[in-house]
Amino acid sequence: MSGLSLNESKNPKDAPPDHQWTLPDRATTKISEANTAGVSESGFVAPLFSPWEAEQRIENLREFDVADVGSKQWMAQHEALEQLNLQAHQSAQGNQDEFVIEALVTLDKVRLLVHELLATEAWRLHLFPRLKGALAELKATMRGYFCLYHEATLVNLLSICLHHAHVTEALGESAVELVDYLARRMVELNSKGKEWSARGVDAPTDTKEMAAKIDAMTPLSELEDQSVEVNFQACVGCATVVRYLIEHVNTLPLSVLTRMVDTHDILLTLIPIIENPPWTRRTPEGKWQKLIDDKWKTVEPAELLTLTKTEGQMWLALFHFICNAEIQKRYHFNSFRKGQLLRARKYINEVLLDQLPVLADVQRFMDELALMEAPEPSGARESGALMMEQVATTTEKLVRQRDWDELAKEQLEKIFSAQSDVNDMDLRRLVDNVYTLDGVEDVLGEAPPSDLYAQELGGMVAVLMGEEGDELGRFEYKPTGKPKAIATAAGPFLRRKFVAPAAARELVLPENVMLKVELSFVGSLAFDTALVSDTLTFVEKGSAPLKEWCQLGALKDKLAVQVQLVQSTEGGGFRIGDAYSSTPEPAL
């Protein structure tokens, strides 16, 4: 398809620039014909950032106390960890140099990840229940959500790092506390997993019903719902971490093995999950669904025995536990443990063995165990054994002798009441610097919703906001003319012109103003969305008339809006002018 690109115009002064005017330091979000996929002709996928940038981020990582969770410095570290997590997964998916993982080991930051995981857990257990009501009232739920999501991010990063034995070895004694954490999560998954997985199974499919349900939700109920979702996501991720810790337990201190086998008896937490997996559910219509890559997908009954990655991790954890020589020396089967393990025997069939042939050794072990006469379980006092175990010093330091009510009050005053979701610059910086990286869609396994944005654009409203998020003006734009087809590297788009009302052209924009554009899409999947700019700073670049462009969104995100800013007289200030939207061309 031929047509004008977004960078072509008959009048050079009216043409959009080659960069995003509101984000001059983010060249990756420019509207151009550049290859946005980040893939070279040889098939090499460009990293999200360079190894040097990764080392810089990792070197700046530090330990935070529970009281600091949610602070400005903590949010900056969360941003860095999100970026490192995405890069680590991209490197693993592309079978490329895993420079993030190597830098974590070299700079001795693997144990720091465990500390941050425990600090975030303590915040979730002790402070979040005391803060959630106030967060909803202050409309600061997004910062609270990211505090919760931090735990899932760390679990996700550990799951990719601990695949390597030398990284697991770098945990050292901190692996003891990681085992404690994983044991708590496995117990939680056993007790609440089915309840969590049932959420959303009866969600309405009709657009109007879904919209009504969303409108009926209060900020508090939405935050609580997000908390459960993140909890479930973190618990599912822990299944992978458990498998790797069991597999590489021989590289860790003896105290880790003792904690895993004697204190928590990890084997007994695996069997109920294998027997009644929380990542499989049945809808009221009788359809089966499985959790695949953090999304519920419908599967045919004939495909139920096909293992997902998470199901495979549980079976591999069982394999490594049973077939590890060091564990066999310490783990003694009594009648209770024997009965619990043999509950999984009926699930080892030809279909499973075809997918995981290593389980043949587990099957043979179970068959031999079934023929043995196991002794009755006996307590430590009856056997005369002296029980000693290592104290979890990090957890003790984080939670012992804390006045949680006073700490919650302090966090509310100093951290969460300082801003709301509308004017939280830390949140906007996080979104801009993490989720707009080139190639991030490939890592996350999802593309922007082209079908939604390809619908007809029914309306556009420009809103001027002050530094505190207060509304300074609201202007409704009117579409004019016919949409023009344009060809871009992100595919065919339609460009529409919207005319600014007279009131907008008369208002001189103050310094440090933000521009929000509200868009209404109409069609079978009608919805509203909004794009927000960074704080606008005006610099005169010559004699009037001057024209600048404020761009919101990007073509690679399937939605871009460019608003013209006009200075008609020298020194007269800038006013907002006409706007142009760019949305995907509808498929025929």
Fold and architecture overview:
The chain has 588 residues and is of the alpha+beta class. 46% of the residues lie in helices and 16% in strands. The protein is built from 23 helices and 11 strands. The chain has helices spanning 51-59, 72-93, 99-106, 110-138, 141-161, 165-170, 174-197, 207-216, 219-247, 254-263, 267-275, 309-323, 325-330, 335-342, 350-355, 359-371, 380-383, 393-399, 404-414, 425-434, 440-444, 450-453, 502-506, and strands at residues 280-282, 288-292, 295-299, 456-465, 471-488, 491-499, 514-522, 527-532, 546-554, 559-567, 575-584. Strand 7 and strand 8 form a beta hairpin. The two termini are 14 Å apart. The model is unreliable at 1-43 (pLDDT under 50).
Key structural traits:
588 residues; alpha+beta; eight-stranded antiparallel sheet; elongated; disordered N terminus
What topology, given as strand order, has the largest sheet? Answer: 8-7-4-5-6-11-10-9
Biggest sheet descriptor = 8 strands, antiparallel
Strand % is 15-25%
Which structural class is indicated by helix and strand composition? alpha+beta
pLDDT averaged residue by residue? 83
Cα distance spanning the termini: 14 Å
The level of helicity is 40-55%
Shape: elongated
**Which residue ranges are poorly predicted, with pLDDT under 50 across at least 5 consecutive positions?**
1-43
Instruction: Give me the Rg, rounded.
Output: 28 Å
Tally the beta strands.
Answer: 11
Question: Count of DSSP helices?
Answer: 23
